[in-house]
Amino acid sequence: MEQIYNVLIVDDELGFLEKYSDILRRRGFEVQTAQNGLDGLEKLRQDQFDVAILDIRMPKMDGIEIARLIQVEDIDTGVIVVTGHGERNEAVKALNYGVDAWFDKSRLDMGQFVDKVRQVAEVMSPEEIHHILSAIPEYETA
After folding, report:
1. Torsions phi, psi of 127, nearest 5?
2. Tens digit of each residue's pLDDT (9 = 90 or more) over 99-142
3. Helix (H, G, I), strand (E, B), or coil: what is residue 87?
4. Dist. CA 95–CA 93, nearest whole Å
5. Does 6-134 carry CATH code 3.40.50.2300?
6. What is the DSSP string of 31-55?
7. What are phi and psi of 103, to 5 degrees?
8. What are phi and psi of 86, to 5 degrees?
């Protein structure tokens, strides 16, 4: 059975939320949404998500600030930034906060986007790696 990954999409454009939530759900992802940065950050603080997809420009808090706080608060999630206004410089800034990828909404290739979401979701956190390694008994070499 295939792993089900939890994704949070934070975007103020309802059409984007509906379209991409539907696409990801049809491909086996669990999806939650938030329509502004503050609500998105609160969900990230309360629940566990494998990937957070963040719009850069949003009311109340932008995606770059959310990415910064994810890093500062050590929230265990992969981060993908999407931009609809060509904010390349802002997207590059977000990379400094541990963002795994960014996409321009106007040139978004659906297949590449879904593949990247899955790829980011499949990365194991350091805690998961430690947990797995700690379960392996030490053995002596001959």
Report:
1. -65, -40
2. 888 888 888 888 899 999 999 998 765 555 555 556 565 544 44
3. coil
4. 5
5. yes
6. EEEESSHHHHHHHHHHS--SEEEEE
7. -130, 145
8. 65, 30
